[in-house]
From TrEMBL:
SUPFAM superfamilies: Tautomerase/MIF (SSF55331). Keywords: Isomerase. It comes from Pandoraea horticolens. This is Tautomerase. Belongs to the 4-oxalocrotonate tautomerase family. Its EC number is 5.3.2.-.
Amino acid sequence: MPTFHVEMFEGRSVEQKRAFVKAVTEAAVNTIGCTAESVEIIITDIKRENWSTAGTLWSDPRPE
């Protein structure tokens, strides 16, 4: 059973998440030959203040 752990910034709607998990499930079924019922997807919403790239929090202003 494939299990996907997805971390993303919070703020996406339930409708967006629903579309995302449907697309990932379909991709798994079509590429690795599993059943849709075996696909597990865990979404973790992360606050921008808890994510950093290159030493800068995503909640801080980004240089333009």
